[in-house]
Every structure is written in structure tokens, then in C-alpha cells.
Amino acid sequence: MSIIEAKGLSKSFMQAVKEPGLKGAVKHLLIPRHIEKMAVQSLDLSIEAGETVAYVGPNGAGKSTTIKMLTGILMPTAGSISVNGINPYRKRMENAAQIGAVFGQRTQLWWDIPIVESFSLLKDIYQIPDAVYKTNLEMFIEMLGMREFIHLSARKLSLGQRMRADLAAALLHNPPIVYLDEPTIGLDVSVKQKIREFIKKINQEQQTTVMLTTHDLGDIEDLCKRLIIIDHGSIIYDGSLSEVKSRFARNRVIFFQVGSPLPELYQQLSQTPGMKLDLQNDQEFSVSFDRYEYTASEVVSRVMKHGEVIDFRMEDANIEQVIKAVYDGNLNLNETGA
Ligand SMILES: Nc1ncnc2c1ncn2[C@@H]1O[C@H](COP(=O)(O)OP(=O)(O)OP(=O)(O)O)[C@@H](O)[C@H]1O
């Protein structure tokens, strides 16, 4: 059986409907009106132990609501969930012992006590054996570069320091499952890198199941093999990241540097359906093309016919383009056979 299993999972909220202005506020006070908002609708989810899954979607798609149900914070309106054989809402304590969670926007550390003391409290709460605690603490301090701030309180930490401390806190008890909700939000490149390497190591060495919610596509490409896209509370794609890249990233881009300006070619390319010319200057340009209509060699030979090509390089399919197309409503993955 899968380590995380959800069937027909739904969650609705009652949202107040208020007309604008003072009149609307008074009216709402006297006769409050609410509508039911379906945040998550009939979601089926099945995640195997050791998987790294990116759970992505536009703002308001239902990502956090799903994670909150999986962690036991929210009770589903309908459907069932089993996390390592446990119903997270009914058995919140048991569920907490087997999961780690990082909510990037919030901290689970005690605000006014040194980080190392927070860790020590977590050791008692989770009843982590001395040897495990010692080994993990040393490894986490080293890998996440926490030595310089381990004796400061959470209040005094920068965002990047706080996030590393939060990640360590979530994993001290070696949970088999970790939920990461925007763990790299607002962080600089080097801290992001540390966090990604750490997550990779934990996943590889301990087969920790990772479910990652992020708007950072670098996180996804670096960490996840499987991609689940949710929109308006429903899953619209669930499959491998490489498959989505190769099947759905229709556009390829080739960058060219040519020996002399080629105005005739530029005019021809900009009038060709399925191709788009982007001129950087007289002798440098890129051609993006629909790879279901043209091959890369067709594009290259068309340019070569017009003049000397000094250099060219092709850009790999980018997951960002795919997700953006889904967000913008330009790509229906179901229609393409997902
Ligand atoms: N406590 C709540 N009360 C009422 N509506 C809620 C509540 N929590 C979430 N919603 C609504 O449910 C929908 C899904 O919200 P959710 O926070 O799960 O989205 P999300 O995908 O995590 O978005 P984001 O990327 O912006 O964090 C939204 O329309 C939101 O307004």
C-alpha cells in the first residue's frame, strides 16, 4: 500500500459574501450571506514511500488545504486519507510522530529561546533516542551551515537562517514523510542550494517521502521526479516530471549568432506560422518553434541557407513554460492524453 493515500478527498469552506462599501458592511451585519467554496474537490492521491513529489498550482488552487488535511490540521469535508496507515485527523498525535512539516511562511520554533534549546525540547516531545538526536544534530548543523546561529533565538534569525533551523527541527525525529510548503520562499541562491542538497540527502539516505509545494521551478527540477498539478481544487496532471517536459513543452528555442545581418531571413521567419523570431541585435537572434511542426535541424538548415552561422545553441524544454501554459489556460493536459 502507498504511504500516502487519499480517495475522493474534498474540503469546502463557507466564505462571507459582502457587497462593497458601508451599506454592504451594515447589510452583511444584519443579514450575513455565505457561499460554499470548494477548495479541494474529489482528489485521489497515491504516493509511494521514498518518492519526491512536487505539488504545484496557481495561487488559490488548493495546495495548502490539501497539505493541511494530510497533516491532520484540517478535517476533510468528504473522502478518506491514510498516511502510513493512520487517519491524520482522527489520530493527530500518532500522525505528528511520523511526519515532518515546514510551512515556509510560518515557524514552528519557539520565538524567544535559542535554536539549540528548541531542538532539545523537540527531542523530548518526540522522544528521540540520545544517539539518534546527537548524530542528526551534528549532521544537520554541518549540512545546513547552522553553527554560527545555533545559540541565537528564532526572533534574531534572518529568513534564510530561520528556514534552515525550521527544516532541521522538522526532521530531527527521522520522520518517514516530510511536507514542505514553500521551503525556499524569499531565500538567496546559496541558501536555496543548501536546503535542496539537504532534502536530497535525506531522501536518498533515509528514503524519506517528500511532498513539496513550491512556486520555485528550480526546486522542482532539482528535487522531484514526479509532478502533480492542481488547479481549482482538482488534479489536472499527475505523472513524471521528465514526461511532462518532453510531452508538453511544445516550444523549443534555438539561439543563433550569424556572420552578417540577414534581413531577408528575419522577415521570412517572422511570417512563418509556428515560428517566432526574437532579434537581440543585427547578428544575434533566437527562433522559438513548435516541435510538433518543425524539427531542430529544419530550423538550423533554414538559417544556414541564408548565411554563415558562427554559433548556435538549443535551450532545453523548461517546466516553467509548461506550468505557465497550464496556469494561463493555454494548455489542457488532459486533452493531450495525460
Ligand atoms: N480558512 C479558509 N476559509 C475560507 N476559505 C479558505 C480558507 N482556506 C483556504 N480557503 C480558500 O480555498 C481556496 C484554496 O486555498 P489554498 O490556500 O489551499 O490555496 P493554495 O493553492 O495553497 O494557494 P497559494 O499558492 O496562494 O498558497 C482559496 O480560494 C482560498 O480562498
Automatic annotation (TrEMBL):
Q: Which residues form the ABC transporter domain?
A: 17-257
* Keyword Nucleotide-binding among record annotations: yes
Q: Which domain of life is it from?
A: Bacteria
Fetch the Pfam families from UniProt.
Answer: ABC_tran (PF00005)
Note whether Transmembrane helix occurs among the keywords.
no
Q: Name one GO molecular function term.
A: ATP binding
Q: Which UniProt keywords apply?
A: ATP-binding, Nucleotide-binding, Transport
PROSITE patterns registered for this protein in UniProt: ABC_TRANSPORTER_1, ABC_TRANSPORTER_2
Which PANTHER family does the protein's record reference? ABC TRANSPORTER ATP-BINDING PROTEIN, ABC-TRANSPORT PROTEIN, ATP-BINDING COMPONENT
The identity of this protein, by name, is: Sugar ABC transporter ATP-binding protein
Source organism of this protein record: Paenibacillus borealis
